[in-house]
Amino acid sequence: MSATAHKTAPMPADILARKGGAPLVSLTAYTTPMAEVMDGICDFVLVGDSVGMVLHGLSSTLDVTMEMMIMHGKAVRRGLTRSMLVIDMPFGSYEESPQQAFANASRLMRETGAGAVKLEGGEVMAPTIAFLTQRGIPVMAHIGLTPQSIHTLGGYKVQGRGDTGDQLITDADAVAEAGAFAVVLEKVPESLADQITRSVAIPTIGIGASANCDGQILVVDDMLGLFTAFKAKFVKRYAHLGDDAKSAMQVYADEVTSRVFPGPEHVYSDKVPKA
Ligand code: KIV
Which of 11, 63, 179, 266 pairs as cysteine with 262 (C-beta 3.0–4.6 A)? Predict the structure, then answer.
């Protein structure tokens, strides 16, 4: 089934059932209007903690709070009827204990209407993923480059090259075994993404992990050319809306200063309209 064929939003079990089938389509969203545009085009929409960098000008995702995620999660939920909503658990909201993760994941789902949460980490987070999934919280895992760990990873580097690839294979198996319904693979070599995708029982969602994955995700502002502070190699720009917006604003400024705008069609006469 293609994403556009959905009449209602898929459930985590529907995403899981797409393993090895038609590639899953996904983007991030942070606002109602953008969610409305992608509704039904995407199988699932992620309210990523990338919101901190993309919309709030933060230098990393580490300062994103539960309150920010809830505010953007509610906004995106209002724009979706045909795509599933997944929401990121922010840094510090789940790592301490499975109980802490349950309290915050259940709050995120309750207050935003999300159908699942996403959290970063592999083998080490497997007990938490099992705790959540056994208690009714569908979990999407995220391994490879996990931006909440940039300080321990040493920056936004490719993960899993050489011998370190074995740990990522272990991570993927551990999160699948723990009950995750899908796993994001970020910034890993193509051959490793292929190996993981062929061996793990749940769909892999690639971002910088090649077309060998079971699906793809991109940050919407990256692919539309709205976020241009930096561009990772894995980003393809499908539009240049930032440049288009700048040109439009320059024309507006010129028309305001030359009194071309507002024109006669934009003003009100003093005639009282007939009832
Ligand atoms: O926060 C985010 O946007 C993500 C991605 C996988 C795109 O985690």
Answer: 266
| Angstrom distance (rounded) from CA 95 to CA 109 | 18
Q: For residue 95, indicate whether it is catalytic.
A: no
For residue 87, give the H/E element and its range.
Answer: strand 84-88
Indicate which residue's Cα is closest to atom 3 of ligand 1: 48
**Ligand 1 closest atom vs CA 54:** 3
Convert the pLDDT of each residue in 93-128 to its tens digit. Answer: 999 999 999 999 999 999 999 999 999 999 999 999
50 lines ligand 1 (CB under 6 A): yes
Separation between Cα atoms, residue 258 and residue 253, nearest integer Å: 9
68's tokens: 């920010």
Contact (CB, 8 A) for 178 and 126: yes
Measured by CA distance, the residue closest to atom 2 of ligand 1 is 48
- From the list 275, 227, 242, the residue with the least C-alpha distance to 27 is 227
Q: What is the pTM of this model?
A: 0.95
Residue 162 lies in a domain: yes
Atom of ligand 1 nearest to the CA of 118: 8
Q: What is the pLDDT of residues 204-219, one digit of tens each?
A: 999 999 999 999 999 9
Q: Which of 137, 145, 198, 151 is nearest to 168 (CA)?
A: 145
Residue 254 lies in a domain: no
Helix (H) or strand (E) holding 46: strand 44-47
Report CA 189 to chain centroid distance, whole Å: 20
Tokens of 202: 């749940």
Residue 220 and residue 72: Cα distance in Å, rounded? 14
For the domain that residue 79 is a member of, what is the CATH number? 3.20.20.60
* Active-site hit among 36, 177, 186, 190: 186
